[in-house]
Structures are given as structure tokens and as C-alpha cells.
Amino acid sequence: MALIGYRMLASTYFWVVGSLGRLIPIVILLTATVVGLTHIIPPFWSGLTIASLGLLIGGAAYIARRSDIAREYPAVDRFFQRVPCYLSIQDKDLNIIRANELFRRDFGNRLGEKCHKVYKGSDDVCPNCPVIKTFADGKTYSTEETVITRDGQPAQMIVYTTPVLDEKQHITGVMEMSTNITEIKKLQEQLEAGHKEYQELFERVPCYISIQDRDLRIIKCNQRFEQEFGDPRGKYCYEVFKNRDCICPDCHALKTLEDGAIHSRETTVIRKDGSPARLVAYSSPIFNDAGEIEAVMEMSTDISEVKRLERELADMGRTIAVMAHRIKNILMGLEGGIFVVNAGIEDGDDAMIKKGWGMIERNVQNVSRIVKDLLFCSREREMNFEQCDPAPIVHSVYDLFKGRARKGNTCLDLEIEKSLPDGRFDPEALHSLLTNLVTNALDACVNDASENRDCYGIVVRGWYDSDDRQHIFEVEDNGTGIPGHVGDSVFDDFFSTKGREGTGLGLLVAHKIVEEHGGRITFRSRDGQGTVFRVIFPLHESA
Amino acid sequence: MPKKIMIIDDEEDMRIYLETVFQKAGYATETAINGEDALARLDDITPDLITLDILMPQKSGLKFFQMLRNGTTTANVPVVVVSGVSGHSDFFDKDALGGPTVFMDKPIEPNLLLARAKELLGE
Questions:
Q1: In terms of domains, do A9 and A97 share one?
Q2: The domain that contains A110 carries what CATH number?
Q3: In terms of CB atoms within 10 Å, which end of chain B has fewer, N or C?
């Protein structure tokens, strides 16, 4: 387009020159030069500049053709000499036959030498030489070239060529005008690199960035945003983030649009795959040239992981507090046991010694259980899987709790299939899992404060589901039940009904053991009615 | 006649321990496994002092305490409230404790327990 513009202007110019005589073109030429040169620097590729350069080359070529102008109008020759770019005229053999002052200053007085020798120190003609092209068809060409100045420094040039015609319109030479654009190139490269860097930063920054218009319609976003929320362009932010059809209450972006201040808030959004994410979002205004807020930039960071860690830390804090309480109780039991044993020894009372010793034994067992639970929780204990029949493990848990249940006025029943296929179990872990579930069930019965329950019961069940090829175990009680609001958090958080013997980590341990076996644990419960925990282990035939 | 201490705790070990401490010091003891059990026994006996655990199944220590203080014959029985839960005294309205009441955290040192008991018994 620029070249077409140039050609049109050049044609017009030559028409004007032909029509208006000698002086008018010189005035136009000087005016065009001033206009052109003032535009050369920043947007040198703009149409106006190209046109100006065209006028300049055209004017210079005219002067070169009309040497009488130079003789009759020394001012015009001075212009040729002092124009602030490299001007040279070359013959058909590419010898430089005329050059201006700047050319001579930076490349030396090299009249008669080949232009490729002068510009590049080369004996070979440059590929795609624009001078040769202009000689061939009389057209104007432009190209970018790297040349070597007389001080040995490389310089980036933009080169224009135009034919020099005699009275019969024969090409007698080619005028070459070059402008050093090394600095501009450098600036352009820096600008491009800077732009690329900012673009890269915008795209890759580990947060979601979107630009929203005054209606909260997303007009731009970064790659990360698109990865998580899909292509949001043209959609409203509340639509993309929350599947809503109206603005969210307490919208921070709207506040920013209203007062121009930065606002932030924590919010839960839905990713494109439907999963929720907790974000902390900041909004800041984008102003137009008139200083008005025309858009808002929203930057959000996913803090789901931080929140999860926060919860875990809080759980850990709670667990530690409860563990401290349990340990304190055990310590009390041990100290009490020692006190009772000592009292028995002092009084020679064997029965008392036996009582005290029983206290010590029970509390040592409690310490052992706490340590085991903690090891399961912290995954310090590796699973030791083996192909085995789970039935004896279930029986041993039943035997362990039979007496205790009776003491707590609770009826413990066992319903297990006579023959279960072998499965891939860690026997000790399975024992620990069932122990925890029965302990919880027993606590739920003993701790029940309802006064109209006739009897408490726990049933331990075990069977094999041959259709789905899985072992299933259940522990059902008719105790206190788990309040509805607790939900699945029983498996995440420390959960206790103040079991007399529990460590408070029971369900957490159970969950981890089931997970490590590749199984799953579920429960159904009615507050005040009782609970059923079900554990399902898919059959793994090979160890 | 030795003074009678009623020990109310759902943990057997704690009952045995406190029983031994008080018996060794010459007191008679009576044990109850929870608040409900204790209330039933109060129909027949009036203890000179009660040690009471807070967190218990059936009837919690707090509920039992309120009933004790509302009873005509038991309102002024001294109580040592024992618990492993830190800050358990916060559960109680300090302005409405009624009769003499002290709070002790587990683990309980026997001599300290006896000293507090003697204070409450005016010995």
C-alpha cells in the first residue's frame, strides 16, 4: 500500500514538475523533504513517510537527471549534498558515480567502486540487488540491508532505488537512497522483546487474569484462565466463574468500577470440568486517556490447596489437643495404677496390687493403640499385604469385644459367611480397621443419653459379593448416631464421641486403611437412631 | 465414723485410683459410673464430699451438678470437679455454683487432692 501511495504521489509529482516548470518542483521537493524527515524516525514505515521518501528520491533523481539544475540552482545541489541520508548514483555496472556528503563521510570517497564492495566489502553482487532490478524494469524498489560503515561497524539500512532517466527516458543510472535504521531497529527489537516478555508474563503468570468491560463482560484473558475456565470472551464473568445469570452479590469488580479502588475477596468458583476452586480475587481499574474507568482487570489466585492445608493444620491442631487429652488420661491411669500397686504393697493387699496392675496393663495397651493409630495416620507404617482369608480376623475382633460389650450392656452379634474367598489384605491393618469401627459403635451405644432405649446392639457382618467380586464388612449399631451436618468429614477430621477407649483417630485410621487397600468406606446414620459403616474391598487375586 | 466420699467417674481406672487415695487417707468411699447412677444412690446416702467427672455418658457431670445443687439435701455438699479437659471450669456459671466447689485438672496428684478435700470438709 505504501509503495502504491508512493508511486501515485511520484507520478503526481512528476506531472506537476512537467507542468509547472523549474521552481515549483524545488519548493515542493524541499517541503516534502522536511515533512518526510520529521516523520522518518518513529513510524518510518508509515504511508506518509514512504510517500515523503518517495518525493525525496523522486526530487533527487530529477536533480540528478537534470545536472543543469545543479549548475543553475546551487541551493538544489546543496540539498543533494546535505540531505541527512546516504544518496548515491550507480551506473549499470553498479559503480558509484555520484555520492552525497553523508555517504562520503561514513563510507569514504569511493567513487568508481562497486556498490557491494563499498557497502559490504564484498566482491560479489548482493542477492536480490534492488539496483539491478531498477535497471531491469525502471521501477522503484526498497529493501533492508546490513552494511559495514568505514569504521567497521555494521549498520542496518533501509534502501530505496529509483531510475535516473535522460531526456529520452532511458535509464542512465540508478539513484540509491539509504537511511541508517540501526538505532530504530534496535529500539524496535527491544520493544518487540519487551512486548513479548509482557505477553509471556501475562499468559504464564500463575494466576487467572481477565479484563472485563463496564458490563463485566470478559474482553481479554490469559492462557491460564482459558485452560481452567474455557474461552470466556464475550461472556459475563459471573457466567464463566459461577454459572450465574446475574451479578454476584457483593461483586468486587463492580465496586472497582464504581470507586476506582482495588478491591478483593475470597470466593468459590466452578472450573470448566465442574470442579470447585477457592479463589482470592483482586480487581483494579483500567483508565482511558480521558481518565475514565473503561474496564476492570481481575486477577485471581487459586487458594484451594492453601485452604486444604489450612484445614489440615487446624485438624492437626485439634488432633494434637485431643491426643494430649488422651495421653493425659492414660498418664493418669498409669499414675493411678502405680499408686494403687504401691498402696497394695504397703498394705500387703494382693487384691489391690492386682487391681493396680490391671490399670497399668490397660493403660499401656492404650498407649500402644494410640501409637499404632498415629503410625497409620502418618503413613509411617507400610502395608504388608498377603493373600488371606479375612474371616478369622473378623472373628478375632468379635472375640476381643464380646466381653467389653457385655460390660457396657450392649449385645454384640456376628453375622459372617462360613466361607469367604481369600483376598489381598494386610491382616493387622484389617484388624485395626474393624477394631476402630467396633470401638466407635460401642462408644455410640454406651454414650447414648436417650432414656427409652431397651437394649443396645452391635452387629458385625462379613460376606462376599460374587457379582461384583468384592468383600464387604459392616458394623451396625443402634447408638447415638452421627449428626447429619457432620457428613463425610468424619473421615477427614478428628471425630469423637468421647469414646472411653478410642484414640479419636479411629475413623481417620479406618479411612486410610481402606484407601490403602483400594477399597471404599461409607456410612449411613440417623441422629439418635444408630449408624452402619460399610467397608468394601475389591477382590485382588494376585498379591 | 469416717466421712463418706462419693466418686463419680465413667472411667474404671479413675474410680479405682480415687477410691484408693481416699481409702488410704481413712475415708469411706462410694462409686458411681455416671450421673444417673449417682442420683439414684443419693436417695439412700448423703456423701460428705463428691468428686465429679465432667464428660460422662448418660448424664453429664454438668447436668448432675445442676441437679445436685437444686436438691434440698444435697445443695451444700462440697464438690471437687475433676476433668481432663482444660478450662472445664468455664462450663460452670461461677456465680451460681451454690455450695463449696473446687476444680482440678487431671492428672491429679493424690496429696493435692487430699489437701483440697480436707479444706472443703473443714478438716
A1: yes
A2: 3.30.450.20
A3: N
